[in-house]
Amino acid sequence: MRYFAILFLLVFSFGQTRAQVTLEKTMTESTWYTQLPTAGYKYFGMDVTNNQCKIYNLDYTLWKTIQLSIPTGYTLYDIQFVSQNLFSTDGQIGLAYMYYQYNSTGQYYTYGVKIIKENGTILATIPGAAYMYVIPTGSNGTKFITYQFDYSTWPYFQGTNIYSLPGTLVNAPENPVREQDLMKNPYPNPSTTQITIPLSLSAQDISGTLVVTDMNGKEILNKALVSGQKEVLVNTTSFPRGLYHYSIIAGGIPSENGKFIVERP
Protein backbone atom coordinates (compact mmCIF):
# COMPACT_ATOMS: atom_id res chain seq x y z
CA MET A 1 0.00 0.00 0.00
CA ARG A 2 2.81 2.42 0.92
CA TYR A 3 4.53 1.63 -2.42
CA PHE A 4 1.42 2.53 -4.39
CA ALA A 5 0.93 5.70 -2.33
CA ILE A 6 4.49 6.83 -3.06
CA LEU A 7 4.09 5.95 -6.74
CA PHE A 8 0.85 7.98 -6.90
CA LEU A 9 2.55 11.00 -5.32
CA LEU A 10 5.42 10.80 -7.79
CA VAL A 11 3.10 10.60 -10.79
CA PHE A 12 0.92 13.39 -9.41
CA SER A 13 3.95 15.63 -8.78
CA PHE A 14 5.27 15.00 -12.28
CA GLY A 15 1.90 15.92 -13.78
CA GLN A 16 1.77 19.09 -11.71
CA THR A 17 5.26 20.08 -12.86
CA ARG A 18 4.38 19.63 -16.53
CA ALA A 19 1.24 21.75 -16.05
CA GLN A 20 3.17 24.85 -15.03
CA VAL A 21 2.65 28.09 -16.97
CA THR A 22 5.99 29.04 -18.51
CA LEU A 23 6.96 32.44 -19.87
CA GLU A 24 8.41 31.89 -23.34
CA LYS A 25 9.24 35.41 -24.45
CA THR A 26 8.68 39.06 -23.53
CA MET A 27 8.23 41.10 -26.70
CA THR A 28 9.32 44.73 -26.87
CA GLU A 29 6.38 45.70 -29.10
CA SER A 30 2.63 45.39 -28.72
CA THR A 31 2.21 41.95 -30.31
CA TRP A 32 -0.60 39.77 -31.66
CA TYR A 33 -0.74 36.77 -33.99
CA THR A 34 -2.18 35.79 -37.35
CA GLN A 35 -2.48 32.82 -39.68
CA LEU A 36 -1.23 33.23 -43.24
CA PRO A 37 -2.46 30.78 -45.93
CA THR A 38 1.04 29.91 -47.20
CA ALA A 39 3.32 30.85 -44.30
CA GLY A 40 1.29 29.59 -41.35
CA TYR A 41 1.06 31.15 -37.91
CA LYS A 42 3.05 34.32 -37.20
CA TYR A 43 3.34 36.94 -34.49
CA PHE A 44 3.26 40.58 -35.54
CA GLY A 45 4.40 43.54 -33.49
CA MET A 46 3.89 47.31 -33.73
CA ASP A 47 7.14 49.30 -33.51
CA VAL A 48 5.87 52.82 -32.80
CA THR A 49 9.35 54.36 -32.60
CA ASN A 50 10.43 53.22 -36.08
CA ASN A 51 6.95 53.10 -37.70
CA GLN A 52 7.26 49.43 -38.58
CA CYS A 53 5.27 46.22 -38.50
CA LYS A 54 7.58 43.39 -37.46
CA ILE A 55 6.44 39.84 -38.23
CA TYR A 56 7.99 36.95 -36.31
CA ASN A 57 8.08 33.19 -36.70
CA LEU A 58 6.75 31.12 -33.81
CA ASP A 59 10.34 30.67 -32.59
CA TYR A 60 10.46 34.51 -32.30
CA THR A 61 12.99 34.98 -35.12
CA LEU A 62 12.25 37.98 -37.32
CA TRP A 63 10.53 36.96 -40.57
CA LYS A 64 9.66 40.31 -42.20
CA THR A 65 9.79 44.02 -41.42
CA ILE A 66 7.25 46.23 -43.17
CA GLN A 67 7.88 49.96 -43.16
CA LEU A 68 4.80 52.09 -42.54
CA SER A 69 4.34 55.54 -44.03
CA ILE A 70 3.12 57.85 -41.26
CA PRO A 71 2.28 61.50 -42.11
CA THR A 72 4.50 64.13 -40.48
CA GLY A 73 3.32 64.97 -36.98
CA TYR A 74 1.29 61.77 -36.58
CA THR A 75 1.88 58.76 -34.32
CA LEU A 76 1.27 55.10 -35.15
CA TYR A 77 -1.77 53.85 -33.20
CA ASP A 78 -2.75 50.36 -34.35
CA ILE A 79 -2.03 47.58 -36.88
CA GLN A 80 -4.75 45.12 -37.92
CA PHE A 81 -5.56 42.44 -40.49
CA VAL A 82 -2.03 41.25 -41.26
CA SER A 83 -2.97 38.82 -44.03
CA GLN A 84 -2.46 37.34 -47.46
CA ASN A 85 -5.01 37.54 -50.29
CA LEU A 86 -7.34 39.89 -48.43
CA PHE A 87 -6.41 43.36 -49.68
CA SER A 88 -4.79 41.99 -52.87
CA THR A 89 -4.63 38.61 -54.59
CA ASP A 90 -0.92 38.44 -55.45
CA GLY A 91 0.16 36.60 -52.28
CA GLN A 92 1.91 39.62 -50.75
CA ILE A 93 1.40 40.44 -47.09
CA GLY A 94 -1.17 43.19 -46.63
CA LEU A 95 -2.29 45.10 -43.58
CA ALA A 96 -4.20 48.13 -42.36
CA TYR A 97 -2.82 50.59 -39.87
CA MET A 98 -4.10 53.64 -38.02
CA TYR A 99 -2.31 56.82 -36.90
CA TYR A 100 -3.30 59.96 -35.00
CA GLN A 101 -2.28 63.55 -34.28
CA TYR A 102 -3.15 65.76 -31.31
CA ASN A 103 -4.03 69.43 -31.88
CA SER A 104 -2.97 71.10 -28.64
CA THR A 105 -4.56 74.43 -29.60
CA GLY A 106 -8.01 73.06 -30.34
CA GLN A 107 -7.50 70.08 -27.99
CA TYR A 108 -8.79 67.47 -30.44
CA TYR A 109 -7.42 64.46 -32.33
CA THR A 110 -7.19 63.66 -36.02
CA TYR A 111 -7.01 60.04 -37.18
CA GLY A 112 -6.27 58.28 -40.43
CA VAL A 113 -5.94 54.78 -41.90
CA LYS A 114 -3.80 53.34 -44.67
CA ILE A 115 -3.98 49.92 -46.31
CA ILE A 116 -0.66 48.75 -47.78
CA LYS A 117 1.16 45.76 -49.24
CA GLU A 118 4.51 44.58 -47.87
CA ASN A 119 6.39 46.22 -50.79
CA GLY A 120 5.09 49.63 -49.66
CA THR A 121 2.31 49.98 -52.24
CA ILE A 122 -0.51 52.04 -50.72
CA LEU A 123 -3.88 50.53 -51.62
CA ALA A 124 -6.03 53.08 -49.77
CA THR A 125 -5.69 56.20 -47.61
CA ILE A 126 -8.71 57.06 -45.46
CA PRO A 127 -8.56 60.44 -43.66
CA GLY A 128 -10.46 60.66 -40.39
CA ALA A 129 -10.92 56.90 -39.98
CA ALA A 130 -10.77 56.00 -36.29
CA TYR A 131 -12.24 52.47 -36.37
CA MET A 132 -11.97 49.69 -38.98
CA TYR A 133 -13.51 46.26 -39.43
CA VAL A 134 -13.39 43.38 -41.94
CA ILE A 135 -16.81 41.83 -42.45
CA PRO A 136 -17.47 38.61 -44.44
CA THR A 137 -20.86 38.84 -46.19
CA GLY A 138 -21.14 35.43 -47.83
CA SER A 139 -21.99 35.62 -51.52
CA ASN A 140 -21.62 39.41 -51.42
CA GLY A 141 -17.89 39.13 -50.72
CA THR A 142 -15.73 40.67 -48.01
CA LYS A 143 -16.22 44.28 -46.91
CA PHE A 144 -13.88 46.72 -45.17
CA ILE A 145 -15.77 49.24 -43.04
CA THR A 146 -14.33 52.41 -41.50
CA TYR A 147 -15.91 55.08 -39.33
CA GLN A 148 -14.74 58.66 -39.92
CA PHE A 149 -14.69 61.35 -37.24
CA ASP A 150 -13.83 65.05 -37.20
CA TYR A 151 -13.24 66.03 -33.59
CA SER A 152 -12.73 69.70 -34.51
CA THR A 153 -16.49 70.05 -35.16
CA TRP A 154 -19.78 69.09 -33.57
CA PRO A 155 -21.26 66.56 -34.01
CA TYR A 156 -18.05 64.54 -34.22
CA PHE A 157 -19.28 61.69 -36.42
CA GLN A 158 -18.84 62.29 -40.14
CA GLY A 159 -19.70 59.05 -41.91
CA THR A 160 -19.02 55.41 -42.73
CA ASN A 161 -17.03 54.09 -45.69
CA ILE A 162 -17.75 50.60 -47.02
CA TYR A 163 -15.15 49.05 -49.33
CA SER A 164 -15.27 45.82 -51.30
CA LEU A 165 -12.15 43.69 -50.88
CA PRO A 166 -10.79 41.30 -53.52
CA GLY A 167 -10.10 38.44 -51.11
CA THR A 168 -11.13 36.86 -47.84
CA LEU A 169 -9.62 36.96 -44.36
CA VAL A 170 -7.83 33.82 -43.21
CA ASN A 171 -6.82 34.54 -39.66
CA ALA A 172 -5.81 32.78 -36.46
CA PRO A 173 -8.77 31.19 -34.67
CA GLU A 174 -9.81 33.28 -31.72
CA ASN A 175 -10.14 32.03 -28.16
CA PRO A 176 -13.74 32.04 -26.93
CA VAL A 177 -14.65 35.69 -26.31
CA ARG A 178 -17.54 37.44 -24.68
CA GLU A 179 -18.44 39.91 -27.42
CA GLN A 180 -21.46 41.19 -25.48
CA ASP A 181 -19.34 42.63 -22.67
CA LEU A 182 -17.90 45.51 -24.73
CA MET A 183 -20.88 47.09 -26.45
CA LYS A 184 -19.69 50.65 -27.22
CA ASN A 185 -16.47 52.63 -27.56
CA PRO A 186 -14.92 54.21 -24.45
CA TYR A 187 -15.16 57.98 -24.02
CA PRO A 188 -13.56 60.43 -24.09
CA ASN A 189 -10.93 58.70 -26.23
CA PRO A 190 -8.19 59.90 -26.09
CA SER A 191 -8.36 60.57 -22.37
CA THR A 192 -6.44 63.00 -20.17
CA THR A 193 -7.82 62.47 -16.64
CA GLN A 194 -10.48 59.75 -16.84
CA ILE A 195 -12.27 57.47 -19.29
CA THR A 196 -15.63 55.70 -19.18
CA ILE A 197 -15.73 52.15 -20.56
CA PRO A 198 -19.29 50.99 -21.39
CA LEU A 199 -19.93 47.29 -20.88
CA SER A 200 -22.78 44.83 -20.55
CA LEU A 201 -21.90 42.42 -17.77
CA SER A 202 -24.57 39.73 -17.72
CA ALA A 203 -26.81 39.51 -14.68
CA GLN A 204 -25.90 35.80 -14.57
CA ASP A 205 -22.29 36.73 -13.80
CA ILE A 206 -21.75 37.19 -10.09
CA SER A 207 -18.65 39.30 -10.75
CA GLY A 208 -16.05 40.18 -13.35
CA THR A 209 -12.73 41.95 -13.78
CA LEU A 210 -11.52 44.81 -15.96
CA VAL A 211 -7.88 44.34 -16.96
CA VAL A 212 -5.89 47.22 -18.51
CA THR A 213 -2.41 46.70 -19.99
CA ASP A 214 0.08 49.02 -21.65
CA MET A 215 1.64 48.56 -25.09
CA ASN A 216 4.25 46.20 -23.66
CA GLY A 217 1.62 43.92 -22.15
CA LYS A 218 2.29 45.09 -18.57
CA GLU A 219 -0.81 45.04 -16.39
CA ILE A 220 -1.64 48.60 -15.29
CA LEU A 221 -5.04 48.08 -13.68
CA ASN A 222 -7.09 45.15 -12.37
CA LYS A 223 -10.51 46.37 -11.27
CA ALA A 224 -13.39 44.29 -9.87
CA LEU A 225 -16.83 44.54 -11.51
CA VAL A 226 -20.24 43.57 -10.17
CA SER A 227 -23.17 41.70 -11.71
CA GLY A 228 -25.17 43.73 -14.23
CA GLN A 229 -22.69 46.64 -14.28
CA LYS A 230 -23.16 48.86 -17.35
CA GLU A 231 -19.98 50.96 -17.31
CA VAL A 232 -16.74 51.49 -15.43
CA LEU A 233 -14.92 54.78 -14.81
CA VAL A 234 -11.12 54.62 -14.95
CA ASN A 235 -8.93 57.37 -13.50
CA THR A 236 -6.05 57.87 -15.98
CA THR A 237 -4.22 60.75 -14.28
CA SER A 238 -1.37 58.43 -13.25
CA PHE A 239 -1.14 56.65 -16.63
CA PRO A 240 1.83 57.64 -18.80
CA ARG A 241 0.98 59.02 -22.25
CA GLY A 242 0.40 56.17 -24.70
CA LEU A 243 -1.85 53.39 -26.00
CA TYR A 244 -3.63 50.97 -23.64
CA HIS A 245 -5.55 47.71 -24.15
CA TYR A 246 -8.39 46.49 -21.95
CA SER A 247 -10.70 43.50 -21.67
CA ILE A 248 -13.42 42.19 -19.38
CA ILE A 249 -13.03 38.75 -17.79
CA ALA A 250 -16.13 37.05 -16.39
CA GLY A 251 -16.83 33.38 -15.88
CA GLY A 252 -13.21 32.66 -16.80
CA ILE A 253 -13.71 33.95 -20.38
CA PRO A 254 -12.20 37.22 -21.67
CA SER A 255 -13.99 39.73 -23.87
CA GLU A 256 -12.56 41.10 -27.08
CA ASN A 257 -9.82 43.67 -26.55
CA GLY A 258 -10.64 47.36 -26.52
CA LYS A 259 -8.18 50.24 -26.84
CA PHE A 260 -7.81 53.79 -25.64
CA ILE A 261 -5.18 56.54 -25.69
CA VAL A 262 -3.97 58.63 -22.78
CA GLU A 263 -2.70 62.09 -23.66
CA ARG A 264 -1.42 65.00 -21.64
CA PRO A 265 -2.45 68.65 -22.26
Structural write-up:
This protein is mainly β and 265 residues long. It folds into two domains: 136 residues; 84 residues, Sandwich (Immunoglobulin-like). 6% of the residues lie in helices and 49% in strands. It contains one helix and 18 strands. The strands form five sheets. Strands 13, 14, 16, 17 and 18 form a five-stranded antiparallel sheet that branches. A hairpin with a 4-residue loop joins β7 and β8. The termini are far apart. The relative contact order is 0.12. The N terminus is likely disordered.
Q: Tell me what portion of residues adopts beta-strand conformation.
A: over 45%
Silhouette: globular
Structural class: mainly beta
Largest sheet data: 5 strands, antiparallel
Q: Please trace the helix and strand order, writing H or E for each element.
A: HEEEEEEEEEEEEEEEEEE
Q: How many strand segments?
A: 18
> What count of helical segments does DSSP give?
1
Runs in which pLDDT lies below 50 for 5 or more consecutive residues are: 1-12, 172-181
Which whole number gives the mean pLDDT?
81
- The rounded distance between the terminal residues' Cα atoms is 72 Å
The tally of structural domains comes to 2
Helix content: under 10%
- Radius of gyration, in Å, reads 21 Å
